[in-house]
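Retry 2 of 3 after timeout on previous attempt. Resubmitting structure tokens to design endpoint.
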């Protein structure tokens, strides 16, 4: 990897195009380097993972709305169109709208892969727009794998080096450029075209973090889908010769100067050298539980405490629960956010899955976590849960913050230490650094676990024959022909989607 120095340039200073971050990213995307077998296998895992969580969300309101919008935009004339999760394989829509609908389906349950460093990310959000374009133009499985490997690489490299949330910018600002780069790789576009698409994608997807603050709305699932949709449109415009604001990162009135660290800012952004394989997907990790990633290890710890100390599930036995954890966990999903909504039994599901006091309480009482049952209004309003929930707080611990930011995989951690004080004075202390499903966890996810997750979430949503068809096809991903790519979708059981009321809008 090469570190690329990035700073703000005044308009009168010279910054050659080849020295701009967007162009360097474009050069990485255009590099014809082969994808390793290890990366290819992980791409397949994440295709299965995305299909799992998208399938489980097909009947949820935001997904129904996004799908209905996509279905109002039939396949455009420049290609075959792209598939929409839930619909039959013969149903094709314009690729940017497929990216939109499928992106919402993938993100809705907050249940797919993650990478956390200077910034947050769900790199699997790259897959819907890249796959939609692949289906539209008739790419092969080999080229699709290459595009996805690039999408992951660029997003992870940006997330490692450029913090957005400190400036209240939503993390999807890294997704627009990474998805555009991934599409560029898959299509074999020139660095110049990819460069222009990256600039447009960044310019149109830089938004505030209010979508993840306070009362969190359904837009949380739509934000990454919007970034993917913008990436598809940016590629289309760039292929037609249209240009972007330049330099988009380093300009005097650019993203860094006015939205991030300001005119004096400087970053060191790692990117692969020419000829160096794109391996960043191997640094990412998926979720066993449907909740914000920083809750994963704490859910596992709560399950353990439930088994070992069943008495603490009863709120009247507990005086206080204090979770000592990282800065990010405390201030984003903990009591440090100072969001009263995180303690509100009437809060939205999107808010509850970003409330570690709620999540830890329910997991502690139930000894389990479920993507539907753990979030029902009835579960959130249970009197003993509310009582224990309100006794649960978080505190930032410098050591856990240090481990969160560590670049040493053996030290890096996303969990915390829990101190539970009982009313009789007994103090129970335990900690967990990484989730069980993490590559360094107690039960790391492998192909078997990804397939198991898909089977579990598809049960009752897809026919058994459809489950097996998809799994057989996706595991042959690098060998798929253009004709096969349309099969990389899932079709709901007959009548399931037809029974759901479709919202009406403009289209």
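Retry 2 succeeded. Sequence:
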């Amino acid at each position: 990897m090469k570190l690329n120095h990035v700073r703000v340039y005044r308009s009168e200073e010279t910054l050659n195009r080849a020295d701009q971050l967007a162009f360097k990213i474009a050069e990485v995307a255009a590099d014809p380097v082969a994808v390793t077998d290890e990366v290819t296998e992980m791409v397949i895992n994440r295709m299965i993972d995305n299909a799992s969580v998208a399938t489980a969300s097909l009947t949820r309101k935001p997904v129904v709305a996004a799908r209905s919008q996509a279905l109002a935009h039939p396949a455009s004339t420049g290609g075959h169109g792209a598939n929409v999760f839930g619909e039959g394989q013969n149903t094709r829509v314009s690729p940017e709208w497929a990216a939109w609908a499928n992106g919402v389906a993938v993100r809705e349950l907050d249940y797919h892969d993650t990478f956390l460093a200077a910034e947050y990310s769900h790199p699997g959000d790259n897959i819907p727009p890249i796959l939609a374009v692949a289906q539209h133009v008739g790419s092969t499985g080999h080229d699709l794998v290459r595009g996805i490997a690039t999408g992951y690489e660029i997003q992870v490299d940006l997330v490692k080096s450029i913090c957005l949330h400190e400036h209240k910018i939503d993390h999807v600002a890294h997704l627009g450029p990474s998805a555009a780069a991934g599409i560029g790789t898959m299509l074999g576009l020139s660095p110049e075209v990819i460069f222009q698409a990256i600039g447009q994608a960044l310019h149109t997807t830089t938004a505030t973090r209010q979508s993840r603050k306070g009362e969190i709305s359904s837009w949380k699932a739509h934000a990454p889908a919007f970034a993917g949709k913008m990436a598809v449109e940016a590629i289309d415009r760039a292929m037609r010769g249209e240009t972007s604001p330049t330099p988009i990162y380093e300009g005097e009135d650019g993203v860094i100067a006015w939205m991030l660290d300001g005119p004096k800012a400087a970053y060191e952004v790692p990117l692969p050298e020419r000829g160096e394989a794109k391996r960043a997907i191997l640094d990412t990790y998926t979720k066993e539980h449907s909740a914000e990633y920083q809750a994963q290890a704490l859910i596992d710890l709560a399950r353990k405490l439930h088994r070992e100390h069943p008495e603490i599930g009863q709120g009247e036995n507990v005086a206080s629960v204090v979770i000592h954890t990282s800065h990010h966990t405390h201030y984003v999903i903990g009591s440090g956010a100072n969001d009263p909504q995180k303690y509100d039994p009437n809060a939205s599901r999107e808010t509850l899955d970003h409330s570690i006091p709620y999540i830890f309480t329910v997991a502690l009482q139930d000894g389990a976590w479920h993507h539907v049952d753990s979030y029902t209004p009835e579960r959130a309003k249970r009197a003993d849960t509310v009582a224990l929930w309100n006794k649960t707080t978080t505190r930032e611990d410098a050591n856990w913050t240090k481990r969160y930011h560590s670049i040493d995989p053996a030290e890096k951690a996303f969990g915390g230490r829990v101190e539970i004080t009982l009313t009789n004075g007994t103090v129970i202390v335990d900690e967990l650094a990484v989730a069980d499903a993490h590559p360094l966890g107690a039960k790391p996810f492998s192909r078997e676990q990804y397939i198991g997750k898909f089977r579990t979430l598809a049960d009752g949503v897809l026919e058994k024959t459809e489950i097996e068809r998809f799994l057989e096809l996706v595991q042959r991903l690098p060998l798929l022909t253009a004709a096969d790519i349309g099969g990389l979708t899932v079709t709901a059981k007959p009548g399931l989607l037809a029974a759901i009321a479709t919202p009406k809008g403009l289209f």
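Attempt log closed. The mean pLDDT is 95.
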